[in-house]
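Section 5: illustrative case.
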């Protein structure tokens, strides 16, 4: 049977193709990064989300859980189980605030602080895995941060078509 030629796509129709979606490109890159991080973090016994929590705590020290969530763009329902697992592993200590018993803070334990030294190799391994020069990685990060700012400030009503 002879193959039929594909009808010519209308110009606007091609925008509905998966390969034209920036969101899918970001999603695919994120999944690829997660795979690389899974390998890089295996020796530390951390998952990627746990690593992100530890990065915030190593940088800022003791913080209210809400502030950790703000840094990571995570709600408490997602963050609490991560902190519980890190606490069970001995890397994090959680404490209820004396001033406001509804507020819980988290901080790295001595073991969690010592893990930081072992984690110093992770960014080097990730950089090497990308095959990109550091300047290009920084430029991509800056572009993604700028895109995030724009999307955060986008008028949601305009996006909804109202």
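Designed sequence:
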């Amino acid at each position: 049977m002879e193959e039929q030629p594909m009808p010519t796509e209308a110009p606007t129709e091609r925008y509905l193709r998966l390969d034209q979606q920036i969101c899918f490109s970001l999603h695919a890159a994120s999944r690829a990064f997660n795979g690389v991080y899974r390998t890089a973090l295996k020796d530390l016994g951390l998952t990627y989300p746990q690593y992100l929590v530890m990065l915030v705590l190593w940088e800022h020290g003791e913080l209210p859980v809400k502030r950790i969530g703000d840094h990571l763009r995570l709600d408490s329902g997602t963050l609490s189980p991560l902190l519980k697992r890190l606490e069970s592993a001995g890397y994090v200590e959680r404490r209820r605030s004396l001033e406001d018993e509804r507020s819980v803070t988290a901080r790295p334990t001595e073991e969690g602080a010592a893990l930081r030294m072992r984690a110093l190799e992770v960014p080097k391994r990730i950089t090497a895995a990308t095959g990109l020069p550091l300047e290009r990685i920084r430029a991509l990060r800056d572009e993604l941060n700028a895109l995030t700012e724009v999307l955060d400030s986008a008028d949601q009503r305009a996006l909804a078509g109202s």
